[in-house]
Design a protein that fits this description.
By secondary structure, the protein is mostly beta strands. It contains one helix and twelve strands; from the N terminus they run E-E-E-H-E-E-E-E-E-E-E-E-E.
């Protein structure tokens, strides 16, 4: 049975047979203040804090005229942060020298709830560049080397 706790603005639901419980924030139904209150309730109930690090992965060598895909995911702070990854869909991608390589952000298709932020890097001329992904005050950098095409 759902139990409403008006003091916290949360809707607590105990799963069948008591094997799990899940705390869900109730919006206007319980008279919650707004989005700030909701985020605060989620962080407080789940113990999942803000984004603390970003990891960029993918091929770091690309031939002139070819492309590679880089992706990123974030680690969250808090008790449950080790079990929750951040998709970092708000990442801003940058390249240190656009004459050596260009970069295009790739958005996940509609309805995709598992893909992380990604970018396509195209080699333009031989050399090395730094590719960075940044979101919410956290940044990750990786080096990409552009080599002669075969």
């Amino acid at each position: 049975m759902p139990v409403v706790d008006p003091a916290r603005g949360a809707l607590a639901h105990r799963a069948a047979r008591g094997t799990a419980s899940l705390a869900i924030v109730a919006l206007a139904a319980c008279g919650a203040g707004g989005v700030g209150d909701i985020v605060g309730d989620i962080v407080g109930v789940l113990g999942v804090g803000p984004l603390v690090s970003i990891t960029v992965s993918g091929d770091t060598v690309v031939a002139v005229g070819d492309t590679v895909r880089l992706s990123t995911w974030g680690k969250r702070d808090g008790v449950l942060g080790m079990f929750v990854y951040d998709r970092v869909l708000d990442a801003t991608w940058r390249v240190s020298d656009p004459t050596v390589a260009s970069i295009v952000t790739v958005l996940p298709p509609p309805g995709d709830s598992t893909s992380t932020s990604a970018a396509i890097v195209t080699g333009r001329r031989q050399g090395s560049v730094q590719i960075s992904a940044a979101a919410r005050g956290v940044q990750a950098v990786t080096n990409v080397h552009v080599v002669a095409s075969q």
